[in-house]
Design a protein that fits this description.
It is globular, with a radius of gyration of 16 Å. The protein is an alpha/beta fold and 194 residues long. It has one domain: Spore Coat Polysaccharide Biosynthesis Protein SpsA, Chain A (Alpha-Beta Complex), CATH 3.90.550.10. It starts with a strand and ends with a helix. The protein has helices at residues 29-40, 55-63, 76-84, 103-112, 126-132, 176-179, 185-193, and strands at 2-6, 24-25, 27-28, 45-50, 67-70, 91-95, 119-125, 140-142, 145-155, 168-172.
Amino acid sequence: MIGLVMCGGKGTRMESVQEKLLLKYKKPIIQHVISALDESGCFSKIVCATSCNAPKTSQFVKDLGMSTVETKGEGYVEDLNHILESFDDDVFVVSGDLALLDSEIVQKIVSDFENRKSWTSVLVSKKFLDLIGVKPEYLVNYNGEECAFTGISIVNPKIIVGMEPVQESYVVIDDKRVAINLNTKSDCDLLGAA
């Protein structure tokens, strides 16, 4: 399995002059995500998807010695679909802004993956997000419960064809390590309290 860290977004909702993934929570946020994947021992290789939208982040991950693939920076979905065309193995896709991610939760997600569908996304319930004070922007209904995407998916790229819709399966994991994405200043405040 390949670990793919999406780290080429503009981070405009953060309203910061600094690139979002370089904001520090003990160390730069992107470094927490890369370390979690690396220390999990689950991946044959780890690749960072970068773009011209975040040039300092791109240089930072290169300085860490990470393999990178430059995207067009057209948007998360478009960039991800383009990248997946170059992989044959299953891909663990993770957003670069999950500062609490650690190797243990990565191992749990990978071990629970049953290759059920071409695309399995990790969700967190709105009830749990309310409990920890996270305000999701977008909710989906899964098994009668409102849930939010965490930014983690496991994808079989051999079944994906361009931008055509795929049958997606879901796994709900109510855990703050996958629940807190840093998108806004209030998310950063929550991280400090975590």
